[in-house]
Automatic annotation (TrEMBL), chain A:
Subcellular location: Cell outer membrane
Domain SusD-like N-terminal: 100-231
Family per similarity comment: Belongs to the SusD family.
SUPFAM superfamilies: TPR-like
The organism of origin for this protein: Aequorivita vitellina
Keywords, sorted A to Z: Cell outer membrane, Membrane, Signal
Keyword Plastid: no
Lineage: Bacteria, Pseudomonadati, Bacteroidota, Flavobacteriia, Flavobacteriales
Gene3D superfamilies, sorted: 1.25.40.390
Protein name: RagB/SusD family nutrient uptake outer membrane protein
Origin: domain of life: Bacteria
UniProtKB/TrEMBL annotation, chain B:
Organism per entry: Aequorivita vitellina
Main location: membrane
All residue ranges annotated as the TonB-dependent receptor plug domain in the record: 124-249
Keyword Signal included in the entry's annotation: yes
Pfam families in the cross-refs: CarbopepD_reg_2 (PF13715), Plug (PF07715)
NCBIfam families, A to Z: OMP_RagA_SusC (TIGR04056), SusC_RagA_signa (TIGR04057)
Matching InterPro entries: Beta-barrel_TonB_sf, CarboxyPept-like_regulatory, Plug_dom, Plug_dom_sf, TonB-dep_OMP_SusC/RagA, TonB-dep_OMP_SusC/RagA_CS, TonB-dep_rcpt-like
SUPFAM superfamilies assigned: Carboxypeptidase regulatory domain-like (SSF49464), Porins (SSF56935)
Protein's recorded name: SusC/RagA family TonB-linked outer membrane protein
An example Gene Ontology biological process: siderophore transmembrane transport
Membrane topology: Multi-pass membrane protein
Amino acid sequence: MKTILNFLNRLAYLAIVSITALSFIGCEKDLEVGLPNSQLTGISVFQNVATARAALAKIYADIRDTPPLTGTSEGLNLLIGLYADEMKYYGEGGSSIEAFYKHNIQSNSSLTEGFWSGGYQAIYQCNSVLEGLATAPITGEEKAPLEGEALFLRAYLHFYLLNLYGDIPFINTTDYLVNASVKRQPQEEVYTAIIADLEQANELLPNTDQSGQYIYATKAAANALLARIYLYREQWQKSLDAATTVLEDSPHTFTDDLSQVFVSTGPGIIWQLPPITSLTTSEAFTFIFETAPPPLAALQPELIESFEPNDARLSQWIGVVTDGTQNWYYPYKYKTRIAGDGPEEFSVLMRLAEVFLIRAEARVHLGDIGGAQSDLNKIRHRADLEDSTASTETELITAILEERRHELFTEQGHRWFDLKRTGNAAEVLQPLKPNWRITDLLFPLPQQELRLNPNLQPQNPGY
Amino acid sequence: MKNNYRHGLALAGIFALFLNFSPPILSQNLPLKKISGTITDANGPLSGVNVLVKNTARGSTSDLDGRYSVNASLNDTLVFTYLGYKPVEIAVSSNNSINVFMQSDATALDQVIINAGYYKVSDKEKTGSIARVTAEEIESQPVNNPLEALQGRTPGLVITPTTGLPGGGVQVRIRGQNSITAGNEPLFVIDGIPYDSQSLSNGYASNPLLPDGNVSPLNNISPSEIESIEILKDADATAIYGSRGANGVVLITTKEGKSGKTRYNFKFQSSLGHVTRFQEQLNTLQYIRMREEAFANDGITEYPDYEYDVNGTWDKNRYTNWQKELIGETAYRNTINADVSGGGEQTRFLLSTQYTTETTVFPGDSHFNRASVHSAINHRDKADKFTVKFTAHYGIENNTLPARDLTFRALTLAPNAPAIYDENGDLNWEDGTFTNPLSILEADYLQHRKTLLSNLALHYQIIPSLGIRLNSGYENSNLDESRTNPNTVYNPDYGLGPDYSTIFVNKGDRTSWIMEPQVEWSIKLLGGQLTALAGASFQQRTDAVLSYFGQGFASNDLIYDLAAASFIQIDRDLEAKYKYEALYGRLNYNFQNKYILNLTGRRDGSSRFGPGKKFSNFGAIGAAYVFSEESFLKNSHWLSLGKLRGSYGTTGNDQIGDYGYLDTYTVSGTPYGGTIGIGPTQLYNPNFGWEINKKGTVALELGLWDNRISMTAEWYKNRSGNQLVGVPLPWTTGFPTVQANLGAIVENRGWELSLQTENFKTDNFSWTTHINLTLPKNELVAFPGLEASTYANQYVIGQPITIKKVFHYTGIDPETGIYQFEDYDGDGNISIPNDQQYTVDTAPKFYGGLSNSFKYHNWDLSLFFQFTKQKNYNYWYTASPAGIMVNQPIAVLDHWQTPGDNSETQLYTSGNNVVATTAFYNFIQSDAAISDASYIRLKNAAISYSLPLGKLTGKVFLQGQNLITFTNFKGGDPEQFSGFTPPLRWLGGGFQLTF
């Protein structure tokens, strides 16, 4: 009897233990793990200005560090420089960079895919910020610059994608169900959307940025981009107006000192990206070499020869390496490779000199020869050059384009986009590139993109 | 949703009550008495024999003199089992002393006890598909990772080492690929504790070296620590692992001590490794001719500045076989093992330690070291009610490798490239014209890993029919890896100093614990035996990761001192948690060893899913009919085993990242103007849920003529639906994937055949053969909305998911010498995706192994062949157009030169013929780049001789791995992951002493 009681006792105890154990299971609460320490919920990011600003900082950092606009060897400065007539290749045979130089780009090129993916990844973040801000409980005054910057960055990125690929989808939502099956839109439509973004940004953005270093977008940045877009679209009056707003109605001033153009305190800088604290610009790392032959790329000898001999930019912005018999040249706009070992430099994306040249070109087309000459000569004087002798419309256009070539070389592909918009690409590149075909004006959409979203068809011709 | 789980809870409670309060068994409460005796075989006393009181957990083991003692009652039966011997059953009745003579039986299937994870089952009575690989088979192979020893050994299992470098990964596929994208790895369980195969490695550090950053967690365990590995394949065997069983389960059982005299064991082994096959590349003469012809074809007479190989900068007569130079070294592997084991009737122990060092085929001092300690203690109380088992493993690994694999460079470098070292013995950059391949050795990848695995299993037999068990485990693994990039890797022309030297460090720490209470109950019911098991599982895992980047050092000697870096950036400081809970049970009814029914089930909850999706149920039914137990066959002299078994059930898959269902922003670690940026973590989808995998199996097992011939034929069909995948997305969405469930159904079906024969057997000579063959088939059965999905250009309904859609190569245009392809859409242009309509399947058509073992007196010889019929990417896939500054396979010698030529390779181009270049890139994305990669390989050969040394026993052996390969593969090794070091051929020997 006692043993049976004992046994039943034990059994009951066991049952209690088991049921207690089992009741732990099946309760969702037990499986909640909370957020990892390095994450915030999407909603909480936009509860205050500081975290919303951090979300924007990530976009600026991505533009600085990833294609298409990075100053590394994966960015436009070098790659488009090689693709056009600015840079000559010296690296390893068969590399993906060589394909730019030889015009051998295939639709599976990881570098052109980088332009595309880097662009759209940053655009997604702009849209995420815009959607977050739309319902954010922060005051309108605090919200305006944040929203303005996101709109500006979205327009800026689309601008480059459009000029690299032609018809592209304009992405303005984070909804992946929509974005996964988008179609390419005609350039006209994309430009309309870009301009709308910029006009809205212009309303929202401040005149000076909070850092005082112009590392965040301002009204002048929006207007300078509008001036460039209208120039590309040959809407001369609008281009002139936007340029004039920047030149006359912004805190930026033109410096006559070539050595002050690329230092971080340069008064003519409209927008620049600071490198990571205690590092230096990737442009300096990518372009500078000390002994010859060049390890990766050097400036094309034809570009050097095209400078007037007494052009101060030749000595100030171009470095030279010699082995006694032959000279090689590299872009030396950015000089500091070790922090503290030279002037502080940021990567400049927009500066006043370009706006002067935009206005000069617009003025020529609008018949204001004197105004155009004055804008052009401002740039020439700074380079210790005499007034331009160009006086007719045709002469002036040629002179301005040549000036752009010498002022803006290896900066975000200005030269290539100029060759394209003026219809000069074939004439200039045919003799240099045995592989030149007219279809080279546009890059191929990444082939994986076409596989995943057949709506993006057709591929650009020639690929 | 809340109601659902309450419902489940109620059911579970009722189940538990039923278990606990059903009438106690009418057990014979007879007094126990002590039975003892001696066990012998033809050679004298036999130690280590298991003695079990039938239908109880009581038992013992014979000591070195063959003596045993055990407590049993009058009505009990003692069962004596020993691997390789026929089991003996003797009723106790009035005896107090029972002496036993055991007969050896090399092929006895009955008493092979299979580990099924939560329970054990004899091979004869198992209802599921469980394959077993024993220590003997593992130890005869000179491998570093125990998983590599499984290759070809069991049907239905494909093992692919991803690199021939030590410390790399191993891909394991059990019965094919179930999931469309990631998450096809099986569940690994070591001594009852699930072991996370997800690597802590950060791809940024390890990717250039180890494909996909795949660092196998099992590298930490020495093959010599392992007693057996069981592979659970079908629903019956895996459903008890529920959500983690979809891709099969690999159970690893470590060794434990045997009672008897204290035994010391020492083993030393040394092997040499080489690349199995070099790819035949052009020599300098052929190469320079190709280059010159290419420029001539392109109409270029003046060689460009940077084409140093042909423009006269480099010596045009110099020749280096770069494969020999860069991946042609001899790799060494030395292993030392020492262990001591022993114990008495109640307590047994094993302590073992091992040390391995291995080098690579690269020049330089890359090496891998591993030291580990393994211990096991087993104890049972005098009353035989309580048993405890504790095992612990601690291992340390150090891996020093160059930061990048040299294999790809070895194939592409121009054969007339300059010498590696200059006259001073320094790296030669040839005035900056030569990117020296060994500059890669200036950068190091270092990896330190420490792993602690411990397991405590308690068992208490309350009454003979009811036992409770608590299985608990604790795991701590720690990974510390770094990749340096000193300024000396850059061409000195840049003039960069150590200010540009960088280091990336990643430290990961994983702590995981698990508790699994279980109740086991067994009664006689209606003439059969009913066994029930119910248990619960609670698991929690925390991963802490800290990675950072440092740049700018006063000297490269300080690169590992972060305090010396002028710039430090924290890349990631993350702590992630994973929680997991489950309830599981098993009901097994065995009617006279003839009819066996097995029901298993599990209810799982995982924190990886969003609210309302966290739980799911899985279950399976398995049955076996042992027809050889039928009275009319029982005494058949030819049929020793005849069994028909089958199973059907469901399992799941939760191999996705943590927190995937949340909309979050993550700290990027990258500062901008004094602000650390935060960015969206992923595209979030709050709605994804469990993937369900349905598996069915039918098998016939036969043992003939005393099991001299035994065979198994098995048919399986698995279907996985509600696929949980990272759906690939175009970049226009901002991210490459989104986690979601797909309606797609993937079916894996096939035949698995194995045959084991004892061809010859006398006292002095025996010969046994094992053959296994798998005929797998994979099919995408359904995919609603395939056309509109991002998979439209990847999959075809009715075809395997392993197909590749490629261009169809139609030959060379004899007039132009350019590769031609089929223009499917007829638009006159070969383009993606419309013209990539040709499908090629790269999954194996069949694969298997054939092993022969011979014993003659003291000699043992085994030969093991492995074979696969498959297609794979050949050397064209990673090639460059013939004619540019990249070396080529000699196949390019057969090239187009004049109109009318019909050749393998198109005309040479220096890269200045864009039509030819484009055609080439289409060519490598066509069916021409995928060709036969079938092979037959003498995977393993081992010969050993046992030394008769009196009290001391010893053994000397020679072993070889990947010895001979027969293949028509266009490329290096047919198992190679392109661009990475292939698996090596190992040859070595050693000796073992036991006393």
